[in-house]
């Protein structure tokens, strides 16, 4: 079903270097959230803190009623079973082939028979497009393949929370698109909470339900996708426009004089382009966490630029949305239970698999 | 500036030893957790044997020979040729073999273990393991520490035997000693506790080398260079610790076990 992560006033430093401070956010259960930020702002450190690999200096991480930094060792190991984590470099066990890597959690934590393990592993390998490479060692495959194998391993125990560190670094654009589709479909199928760190603007604009931006040792903003995509905040605009103009410099932040010069010459990160329609899961799947297109803008009196939510085929998703949801829920035989936002997903709302009763 | 230096001193004198000690305690606890990782233990023991046996023998033979030559010459001047066998025993079994063992265990086994764990650490394998609910201390460190100790015991025996044979060879073949005298004096002064204390030393050395290597490996950071640094530090720190332990155990041994009279 997915579990909510509630972070309150989290601060982390290494020695005298403060990585980020006072980070508070709620990653809604069952939704896909994306975390952005310039290189080196501590996104990987944040993910590692969420699974208790790094101890924050202050603050709370609530997973249900458990405060992660204050759990005993055994409780922590227990809680970690909720998580699937894909590390930045895949973090496969170098001495095992891909099959054994993916099978590892099953062999450790379940009493499944070897034949069943094989079925599950091959299923996940197919999902990430690695069928046929089971017997390769991690040292013998490309970085992108390691990523995908790491993802298969993270998925094998059907986690409630999936933390993914840069799924698209080292991956070609086509595979990135496929992988994003895998995330959407997975989210629809297992309803897990996703938190994805990425540098890919295209992914950030079209994949998630929520976006967060880490900048200058703070969480600059975290909220629904439409909120950030229509934001007036210079940092957000610069980052999402991939612009050189704005407060983010090559090394952390620009100094005053540079910013003044930019302001005097009338340079600006520029307005954000129209909000693109959100990517949909494959036919027959509905994600519980999906926001109705335009709902946030309407609720907050923001006028999206003309042409927002129109996809390549010319469909306007603001109009298309109710029809889409109706047809999907009808196909699933559950008319009426339509996820529409804004607002938090109702935790009682389960996933809707077309054809499968839930 | 003085703050930096102060930080460094606190780090080296207090924090690092403290963290190392914590790791030792945690490893001790993990050692008694079920199930024991037999496979890993056997694999590691075999691996350590494979990197240490040949160098050990190659060091032990000349070591025994040199001791015989040096001590033999001295003893002959004192007119006590018949005791060369005895001196070889004392020198080789009591001191030289634990020392040679420690050099090899620290230099070869410790370095290999640290490199292995360190590269797993920087590839984030250790983190992944923890996230998958497996305690790396139980899975990786305990079998390695025990394998190190086990192999050290075995190496110590090997060095004693090979060293004595080397000594015998040099004494009898090159210094015209007689086999009878060598063996007789051997019997006169050798005692079982000599061997036992040497084996005890070897065990302690093995555990120490395994723990230091694991500690340094688990704290490696900063890419491949970080692993290289960790291996380097492992070897140096292990040497220092082993020589210190050797001294302490020898001193205790002389207090506790009276030497056999001649
Ligand atoms: N174990 C550690 N000890 C000390 N400093 C660390 C450690 N891990 C990370 N850092 C520091 O924390 C900062 C943030 O690192 P992090 O890897 O989280 O960045 P990131 O946002 O993931 O960057 P990228 O987008 O390039 O992956 C860096 O300055 C790094 O030097
Ligand atoms: Mg990172």
Please describe what this structure looks like.
- The complex is a heterodimer of chains A (358) and B (262).
- Chain A has a six-stranded mixed beta sheet. In chain A, strands 2-1-4-5 form a four-stranded antiparallel beta sheet, with no helix packed on it.
- Chain A has helices spanning 43-50, 73-80, 98-109, 114-127, 143-155, 173-190, 201-206, 225-229, 234-241, 256-264, 295-299, 317-331, and strands at residues 5-14, 17-27, 32-36, 58-63, 66-67, 83-86, 161-165, 193-197, 210-215, 218-224, 285-286, 352-353.
- In chain A, helix 3 crosses helix 4, helix 3 (98-109) runs parallel beside helix 5 (143-155) and helix 4 (114-127) packs across helix 5 (143-155).
- Chain A has 358 residues and is of the alpha/beta class.
- Helices cover 34% and strands 18% of the residues of chain A.
- In chain A, strand 1 and strand 2 (17-27) form a beta hairpin.
- In chain B, helix 3 (84-122) crosses helix 6, helix 3 packs parallel to helix 7 (192-218) and helix 3 packs antiparallel against helix 8.
- With 262 residues, chain B is an all-alpha fold.
- Chain B has eight helices and no strands.
- Chain B has one domain.
- Chain B starts with a helix and ends in a 6-residue tail after the last helix.
- The A-B interface holds A 48, 51, 53, 77, 80-81, 83, 85, 87-89, 91-94, 104-105, 108-109, 150, 153 and B 119-120, 123-125, 127-135.
